[in-house]
Amino acid sequence: MRSALFVPADSEKKLAKGPEAGADALLLDLEDAVALARKPIARAMARDFLRARKHEWPRLIVRVNAWDTGLTLADLAEVVTAAPDGIMLPKCNGAEDVKRLDWALAALEAREGLPVGGIGILPIASETAQALFAFGTYAGTSTRLIGLTWGGEDLAAAVGARANKGPDGQFDDLFRMARALCIAGAGAAGIPAIDTVFVDFRDEYGLRAEATEARRMGFGGKAAIHPAQVGPINEAFTPTSQEREWAKQVLDAFSAAPDAGVVTLGGKMVDKPHLLQARRILGRS
Ligand code: COA
Ligand code: MG
């Protein structure tokens, strides 16, 4: 999943535009982009949108409201009837929150006659101060986990930070830490890490820089808030032809010397971590 575009689920216009954006997933939002009075209509619209889908792609993931709102079960009860590919769980505080969601989904899947375990879970794992201490708890919690992501807006609000980036456009320390922990937590759980949104959606240069950095750090994709962000994000997370060429050369070098642990390529040492990286670039794990 290179790109995942947020679409407020109560907006007919944006729902109609979403599938054309070229994103690998749409995040149908029932949470922060939807006012309280419009939650019921957003649920119904998300459900109808899911029911009307004709294609496997983009994947359709619903962001439900957080457990502490009391709205989550009503969100799930409605959207699971239309079998979304996944549920995004905001303000997730760790393994217990995921297990609870896993259990609720299993009951609803059984009710609907859907395969139990089919709906994925994508936690947003940094939106409270407490959550920062739980990044290591996700491994092994649920086979539904399809990725791990983080968010800096709610975290700023939670700790009373006035902003999450400095004047140079770089995240401040607390947010850099959350971002790095997201990669560590996802790596420990064996799932992809998805980087958070770039809110200044008119700044394509800034978006490209942040997405390129995210890929270098280990993220497999990035969330988007505007259709114009999808192209640059997809590009940033697609291996370049140079990277693919390098990866092929690494694989060739190792198959030419099957008993070697280390080989030389273009004057540089190449060993097992490079082989793993090369396989990942070519999508062969
Ligand atoms: N999904 C689908 N379509 C979108 C979209 C989105 N996330 N964001 C904008 N569009 C559409 C607009 O409706 C508009 O359509 P039109 O050409 O038919 O009028 C077109 O893309 C261009 O939009 P633009 O005028 O540039 O932006 P805007 O002022 O309408 O919207 C935002 C700006 C930020 C309000 C909007 O992008 C948005 O709602 N983003 C998602 C917010 C969200 O979900 N936040 C929660 C997660 S952080
Ligand atoms: Mg939020």
The mean pLDDT is 97
Find the structural class using helix and strand composition.
alpha/beta
Biggest sheet descriptor: 8 strands, parallel
| H and E order | EHEHEHEHEEHHEHEHHEEH
CATH H-level superfamily of the largest domain: Phosphoenolpyruvate-binding domains
**How many beta strands in the DSSP annotation?**
10
What sort of overall outline do the alpha carbons produce when their principal axes are compared? globular
CATH class of the largest domain: Alpha Beta
Biggest β-sheet: strands ordered side by side in the sheet: 5-4-3-2-1-8-7-6
Give an overview of the whole structure.
By secondary structure, this protein is an alpha/beta fold. The protein folds into two domains: 3-238, Phosphoenolpyruvate-binding domains (TIM Barrel), CATH 3.20.20.60; 242-284, no CATH class. The protein is 41% helix and 14% strand. It has an eight-stranded parallel sheet. The chain has a two-stranded antiparallel ribbon with strand order 9-10. The radius of gyration is 20 Å and the shape is globular. The structure holds coenzyme A and magnesium ion. Coenzyme A binds next to strand 1 and helix 1.
Features of the shown structure:
alpha/beta; TIM Barrel; two-stranded antiparallel sheet; 10 helices; binds coenzyme A; binds magnesium ion
In brief:
The chain is α/β, with parallel strands linked by helices and 285 residues long. The chain is built from ten helices and ten strands.
SSE layout and pairing:
Blueprint: E1 3-8, H1 12-17, E2 25-29, H2 39-51, E3 59-63, H3 72-79, E4 86-89, H4 95-112, E5 120-123, E6 148-149, H5 153-159, H6 173-189, E7 193-195, H7 204-217, E8 221-224, H8 230-236, H9 241-256, E9 263-265, E10 268-270, H10 272-281
Parallel strand pairs: 1-2, 1-8, 2-3, 3-4, 4-5, 6-7, 7-8
Antiparallel strand pairs: 9-10
